[in-house]
Amino acid sequence: MKIGYPCINWTLDCSPSRTFRLASYTEERLLETVAQNLACLRRILEYNVQHGLFFFRLTSDLVPFASHPINTYNWQEHFKPTFLELGEYIKRNNMRISMHPDQFVVLNSPNEQTVKNSIAELVYQGSILDLMELDTTAKLQIHGGGAYGDKSTAIGRFAEVYHTMLPEAVKARLCVENDDRTYSLLDCLQLHELTGMPVIFDNLHHECVNNGEPLNEAIQFASETWDPVKDGILMMDYSSQAYGERKGKHTPSIEEQLFHDFLLETEGVELDVMLEIKDKEASALKAIEIAKALGRA
DNA sequence: CGCGGTCAAGTGGCT
DNA sequence: AGCCACTTGACCGCG
């Protein structure tokens, strides 16, 4: 089991998500920002290896405005050697990588332009993983999208877009994750049936929206959607409910007892765990110790 | 030089 | 009807 955290490392004094305003877009600014972001990413990956954290989510913001029409620069070619070096480092250290395109990526939107923009964003994020020459166990995770008052029609539209509009390079990496209000695990399993996409399991979202499946059963269902060769083992997002806060709100730091219980409950299922917790690597380091004590990492 | 309003983009639930 | 949250804050103009 690999354990990781998303996007940013609070210990290091750099950010891989630096950006700038659309109004101040220049090619020079783009090159400078991407160079800084990739340099920071390298430092984060090295930190992760040194600390036994072998799962990491790359920020969507590595390349500002990557899928926006204003950005016509061939950054892929310009930074190709850097991406290749990053990818070699990742592969040499046997790290698992994911990306999570943000809420603006909606493949089943009734708005054609939204779908086009979404695909452009997926092509961008997939191309990062391609430029790193990572295999298809490196994933892009998105949600089911909107329901628009009729979820079964929306699911059908998702599948149609998947089959008729997505490039193979995106399909090879795309996964769907249960969200906290619209697409339950069962809905995602249906999307899996229609497309073959693996299902990423989010335990807190599952607590918010479910069809009565207990955790160990749910995780088993999700796990079976992963082809061990093509997709690798199940990826999941782990977090716990912040006490007294809005439903779905993450705890600021890992609840160690809950994570311990979670590991006991999922014994026997192979999975990589992404900790969606505010304090990032601090919690990931605690999680590693708990997993080691139980012989899981 | 620190604060806070605002930032490319969508959706649905809450107030 | 407007605000807020979402996998992740960061930028930049103003005082």
Query: What is the gyration radius calculated from CA atoms?
Result: 19 Å
H-E order: EHEHHEHEHHEHEHHEHEH
CATH top level is Alpha Beta
Could you say which structural class the secondary elements and strand pairing correspond to? alpha/beta
* Overall body shape: globular
- What proportion of the residues is helical, as a percent range? 40-55%
Question: How large is the share of residues in beta strands?
Answer: 5-15%
The low-confidence parts are: none
**Count of distinct structural domains:** 1
Mean pLDDT: 94
Query: Largest sheet, described in full?
Result: 8 strands, parallel, barrel
The CATH architecture category equals: Alpha-Beta Barrel
What's the CATH H-level homologous superfamily? Divalent-metal-dependent TIM barrel enzymes
CATH topology: TIM Barrel
Secondary-structure map:
Layout: E1 3-6, H1 27-50, E2 55-58, H2 75-78, H3 80-92, E3 96-99, H4 112-131, E4 139-142, H5 151-165, H6 168-171, E5 174-177, H7 185-195, E6 199-202, H8 203-208, H9 215-223, E7 234-238, H10 256-265, E8 271-275, H11 281-293
Parallel strand pairs: 1-2, 1-8, 2-3, 3-4, 4-5, 5-6, 6-7, 7-8
Helix pairs in contact: 1-3, 5-7, 10-11
This protein binds a DNA duplex (15 and 15 nucleotides) through residues 6-8, 15, 17-24, 57, 59-61, 65, 67-68, 70, 98-106, 109, 111, 114, 117-118, 121, 141, 143, 145-148, 177, 179-182, 202, 237, 246, 248-250, 274, 276, 280.
